[in-house]
Amino acid sequence: MRISELSRRSGIPTPTIKYYLREGLLPPGRATAATQAEYDEGHLRRLRLVRALIGVRGLSVSATRDVLGAVAARAGELHQVLGLVLGARPVGDEAAPEDPPEGEVEALIGELGWNVSEHAPARAVLGETLETLRSLGAELDHASLLGYAELAERTAVLDLDQLDPRADPLEQAERALLLTVLLEPALLALRRLAQENESARRNT
Amino acid sequence: MRISELSRRSGIPTPTIKYYLREGLLPPGRATAATQAEYDEGHLRRLRLVRALIGVRGLSVSATRDVLGAVAARAGELHQVLGLVLGARPVGDEAAPEDPPEGEVEALIGELGWNVSEHAPARAVLGETLETLRSLGAELDHASLLGYAELAERTAVLDLDQLDPRADPLEQAERALLLTVLLEPALLALRRLAQENESARRNT
């Protein structure tokens, strides 16, 4: 397809696609004339992933290039690909702590037997949130925390069930990213509705 | 206790407490001299709730006053109190839709048999997120959505188990607010860690 068709099908303006080409986020098309190139479905998939990494995950162009390079190098290892697209730090998130994770979070992950990277940003987020709750006098007891973790395990099974391991790695990476990051507000909304319902149930 | 002690125990500066007194967010203390008043544990609890509504939920002073008035009028009805503190709209959230909720969300709530307010802001959030996923070609099938809703029900049971229905209503409202809003990043972090673990499990 021509670049105009690529733009139409991806919903991304042609000048933006040209910018991504110059920045190396998208491989060049097959030249058909001095000023024309032909693009394929692979370009479209990659463009969608670029849009998701920049627009949804909030990555910079250079961080996106790094992630795409790493994804390409590990195509076929879905686990690694997921870690790459989900773990990369968004633009302006320089303050992410380099310290070793909190003892409490370490202990929890050990207790659950979870196999997760030492550098997963979610470890720090979890530690900081538990600390904030404690400082406000609303500490979570250990049994409750384990209960939430067990529900997170079941959620992750549902999440992973929605990825097709036979699909193209770029396609999988994009879908994983969308279903993880974009689904978050929906899951929180479901929790609030369920709280209201459960509260009504207990009061009748 | 004196206002200085109230400030020390709440962590809120004295000028801020005086401002809340002037704005009617905090009832006056018991006057002990022309320029001195005595405050009690009730003031401390109310101050904590004010801080949570303004600082955590992002409400304006006038919205906070409305919520506090409504909470006081319904003390003892935990269900109503929860709806009030969780449902109030944050500052600058004028664009919240007044339209009737999405048909898909309506149908889901009906199918689940959930008892939730027609005006719950979470309904609109859920509808918009499902729409965004659809527009990006990552539509969630109905069975998955039901699966997530069922996990939200279990989460809500854990959430409500952490509130003591015998506690003071203001104290309950504050704890409900903290555990609901502040716990969100921790639950999302647990989900990401669980995804990484589940992905590793499936690839070995």
Automatic annotation (TrEMBL), chains A, B:
It holds the Pfam family MerR_1. Signal peptide: none annotated. GO terms for molecular function: DNA binding; DNA-binding transcription factor activity. InterPro entries: DNA-bd_dom_put_sf (IPR009061), MerR-type_HTH_dom (IPR000551), MerR_fam (IPR047057). PROSITE patterns: HTH_MERR_2 (PS50937). Keywords: DNA-binding. Residues 1-70 form the HTH merR-type domain. Transmembrane segments: none annotated. The keyword DNA-binding applies. PANTHER family: HTH-TYPE TRANSCRIPTIONAL REGULATOR ADHR, REDOX-CYCLING DRUG-SENSING TRANSCRIPTIONAL ACTIVATOR SOXR. This is Transcriptional regulator. It comes from Streptacidiphilus pinicola.
